[in-house]
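It is worth pausing here to work through a concrete case rather than discussing structure prediction in the abstract. The textbook approach is simple: state the sequence, then state the predicted structure, then interpret. We follow exactly that order.
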Amino acid sequence: MRHEYDREEASAATKLTYLIVGGGIGAILALLFAPKSGVELRGDIADVTRKGIEKSKETAAQLQERAEEYYEVSREKAQEFYQTAAEKAAELGEKAKTAAAQTANPFSAAIEAGKDAYTAEKRKNEAKSITEGRASYPVDTDKQS
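Step two, the predicted structure:
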């Protein structure tokens, strides 16, 4: 929708330019074919030329103003697009990190559980071998008091 609107405005600016150029050419032709003396004709041509130049400067200023407006709007839209893209990229990065962490956690948890089980079993066996190597004496709990 916006693109079509821009095209219509560009078309209107082009039509305005053609109208000004055509009007200037028509005015010069009218002066050339008007029954006037050479001095009057040259003065009229100078006036029309001066007016045409002034009108061209005004039109150029208006077109420059419009171009600056379009540039500003385009820059703002590009900045909004960049921010949105950066936010989406950050969001997707976080989702990827979370997914990778969730995928990695079962494996690392299994490895840790295996290590813990191995360490616990090793301690049991060490404690068992230590107690098996000692002489066991009956302990009388009544005499310790």
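Step three, interpretation. The chain has a mean pLDDT of 75. Residues 2-91 form one domain.
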